[in-house]
Write a structure and sequence with these properties.
alpha/beta; Rossmann fold; P-loop_NTPase; Prk_AAA; protein kinase activity; kinase; Serine kinase family protein
Length: about 250
């Protein structure tokens, strides 16, 4: 168990430094009773001890936990922010969500009309911590990860309006936090597609005609038993870190 913990700490440290680990999914692989669930639950519990900072507009918090840095242009603002505030350039390579983009347009490009709120991650409220599990192959789709249009809002908004979208997917809720996908490779392959762009490119598309959402500081975690899983992992997802528990 100590070796597994050391690997996880190293993974998180390197990911925070912007190295290749930040594009990797952490796999906890081991037998039943090997401590996978305990490690996963401990990581989520520790996540609740550190606040995150989220954009707010008109008293409404960003449904995808938009980080304030998404408002800055890396080409125009990076040098100023690094010189005056010591903010490394790598933190500015973010895009804003459709929700934030709509508010910025309504504000006429005035970013001072946004507010920043300190939010404590919560397992119970699914704030920056989300968990998803494989469902039936016939009825599970990518909306479990990326959300979908909320039909209750179509009375007031067009179908492609960001405010008509329900940001209920695990990737939406877990932005700036942890997303745990239990037994990921038992899910239909089509459900896993958003994870590729979320980890490699740092963004993912919704199910409707809205712009991409950013996955900033997202820690993707999955756990599974070794029965055939290792061969599936190595064949289908090269960008991964496998931690064996015993």
């Amino acid at each position: 168990m100590e070796d597994a913990i050391e690997q996880i700490v190293s993974y998180l440290k390197h990911a925070a430094q912007g190295l290749e680990e930040k594009k990797q999914i952490l796999y906890l692989l081991g037998p039943v009773g090997g401590g996978k669930s305990s490690l996963a639950e401990r990581l989520k519990s520790l996540m609740q001890l550190v606040p995150i900072y989220v954009l707010s507009a008109n008293g409404e918090r960003s449904p995808v936990n938009d980080h304030p840095f998404c408002l800055f242009n890396p080409q125009e603002d990076a040098q100023i922010l690094e010189k005056e505030y010591g903010i490394p350039r790598r933190y500015l390579g973010t895009i804003m969500s459709p929700w934030a983009a709509k508010r910025l347009h309504e504000f006429g490009g005035d970013i001072t009309k946004f507010r920043v709120v300190k939010v404590w991650p919560s397992i119970l409220q699914q704030i920056a911590i989300a968990k998803t599990e494989p469902g039936d192959e016939n009825n599970q789709d990518i909306s479990a990860l990326v959300g979908k249009v909320d039909i209750r809002k179509l009375e007031h908004y067009a179908q492609n309006d960001p405010d008509a979208y329900g940001y209920s997917g695990a990737l939406c809720r877990a932005n700036q936090g942890i997303m745990e996908f239990v037994e990921m490779f038992k899910a239909p392959i089509k459900v896993l597609h958003p994870l590729l762009t979320a980890t490699q490119e740092g963004n993912y598309n919704g199910t409707e005609g809205i712009s991409a959402c950013r996955s900033t500081g997202l820690f993707s975690l999955t756990r599974t038993n070794p029965n055939g899983s290792l061969s599936v992992i190595t064949k289908t997802t090269k960008p991964s870190l496998i931690v064996f528990t015993s």
